[in-house]
């Protein structure tokens, strides 16, 4: 669990949402390891964690069915203790994502994909996305995620994710870019011989 939380914390320390969530870098360095450890614990029990062999990149997926995955244990209390005095921003992020999450079709939700900063732009994220896409396509399952920037949105689009209408985290806050990926058709139709 600690290596998962470390990759997430390091990767998002200077991420697109970071300055809005926690303005002070020193406070982020204090908050993020505990914040992501809470989610790593939950993901190992209720999600699907995929991590590279060198443990420098991780993807956290949640299967969504008619019933959502159970919430993080004691989430409100733990979130308040971990993120104070910035808790309201984290709550706003949670609320916005919850309101916009699609619930009309089973899918896998990509909660996070993260690569250790000194290994970024080397294909780790692509490797993780393609690995899970093969599983989704074989099972005929869609995927959903929120990109945190136009650059991220464009990267996911190259992997088959279709953009939906962006929405703000809060009034005056950053935008999130929801994206949906239908499963690719993996069936092949054999050609009939002509007579």
What does this structure look like?
This protein is of the alpha+beta class and 195 residues long. It has helices at 2-12, 18-21, 25-46, 75-83, 87-100, 124-139, 150-157, and strands spanning 48-51, 57-64, 107-115, 142-147, 162-163, 167-168, 175-181. Strand 6 (167-168) and strand 7 (175-181) form a beta hairpin. Helix 1 (2-12) crosses helix 3 and helix 3 runs antiparallel to helix 4. The longest helix has 22 residues, at 25-46. It is globular and about 50 Å long. Residues 189-195 have low confidence and may be disordered.
Give the SSE map.
Elements: H1 2-12, H2 18-21, H3 25-46, E1 48-51, E2 57-64, H4 75-83, H5 87-100, E3 107-115, H6 124-139, E4 142-147, H7 150-157, E5 162-163, E6 167-168, E7 175-181
Parallel strand pairs: 3-4
Antiparallel strand pairs: 1-2, 2-3, 4-7, 5-7, 6-7
